[in-house]
Structures are given as structure tokens and as C-alpha cells.
Prior knowledge:
It is a single chain. By secondary structure, the protein is of the alpha+beta class. It has helices spanning 8-33, 37-63, and strands at residues 68-70, 76-79, 84-96, 102-113, 132-137, 143-145, 160-169, 177-182, 202-205. Helix 1 runs antiparallel to helix 2. The longest helix has 27 residues, at 37-63. The radius of gyration is 21 Å and the shape is elongated. It starts with 7 loop residues before the first helix and ends in a 5-residue tail after the last strand.
Amino acid sequence: xxxxxxxxxxxxxxxxxxxxTVVLIITYVVARLAKRDGVARIAVRTLLAGLGVYAVILLxxxxxxxxxxxxxxxxxxxCEIDCHLAYSVxxxxxxxxxxGSVREVVxxxxxxxxxxxxxxxxxxxxxxxxxxxxxxxxGQNRRFTGSTEALKRxxxxxxxxxxxIAFDVPxxxxxLRLVLRNDDPETRLIIGHENSxxxxxxxxxxxxxx
Length: 210
């Protein structure tokens, strides 16, 4: 299974790091107000050491990852913590526009994978996706963003739907691939997530390999 790298363990580590950071900052402020310089120094050193360790692990996970390009029909799972939504590209079609640009219409399938539901989540509970980002990227790494409105539909476990997403791209855009990912800002700081700094990305091919 190819996922965006989000996992309950990574989320717990991130939340623990945030909570620890807040506690250490409060400890430092209180210690300074109370003129307990020794305690304040320990709090600052512990905070800096912890942030350094977290940064090293984050970057190590990113630098050991790799980019992937999924073929038509291959699924990428985006984690919603207690379940996954699976996305795949079924095809794409092009239309020339009067201004000389090209409209690329990408057909995406969205599926609520019922086999990924966590034990504590009700098996029949509907899901509203977290925020999403979609764009086409070409061989020159130019990005052309699209609307995510069609990806906001609620789903029940096992259900799926297909939708078309339109992108306007220059006529000289070649080797187009679809970027479809989570767009929650905190994912940039979660270890192993594809949105984190320097992490490999998973994109979708729009045509079958020749």
C-alpha cells in the first residue's frame, strides 16, 4: 500500500513534541520570573536539544525517501488518522483553448478503503476529507493548480466516486503528472509525511507508459 506517510505513531510523536515544547517554554518563563536561572537554563537546553533531535529524525526520514510516479489505476492512500481514502487517476483528456493554452481534464477515482478503519472507529461512520491540494506539474517543474471542491464529498466505508478536475496549462507543458495530497499545514512537520521538508513525493501519471 502506497500512502502519504501519515501514521498514528508519527502524529503521536508530533503531538508529544508540541506539548513538550509548550511545557518547556512555560517552565522557562516561570523560572525567569522567579529568578531561578538554573532551572531556566535547563529548560532552554532541553528544548533546543529536543528540537534538534526531532529535526534530525525528520530530515533523515525525508532524505532516505524517494519520489514515485503511479501508473493509471494505481492507488495512493491519504491517511485520515483512523482510516484511509484511496485516490487513483483513471485517465485524462486535453482540449485546446482560444487563448492558445490547453485545458487538461483529469478523471480521479476516490474510494473509502474500509479495510483501513481503526478498531475504535465505527464501521459505518461517514468521512469528510481533510483539506486537499491538487496541481499538475510538468517536466520543467512548473505547477498549475486546480480546484479541490470536487474532492470534498463525504463517503461511507466502501463507497467510491469518480470526478473530473480541470487544469489550464500552457501549450508547451510536457510530461504532466498530477499532484494530489493532504494540505493540512501541520503535516510539514510530521516525520515521514510526504509534505515534510525534502521528502520524496508521490505523483500520478496521466497516460499509460509506452
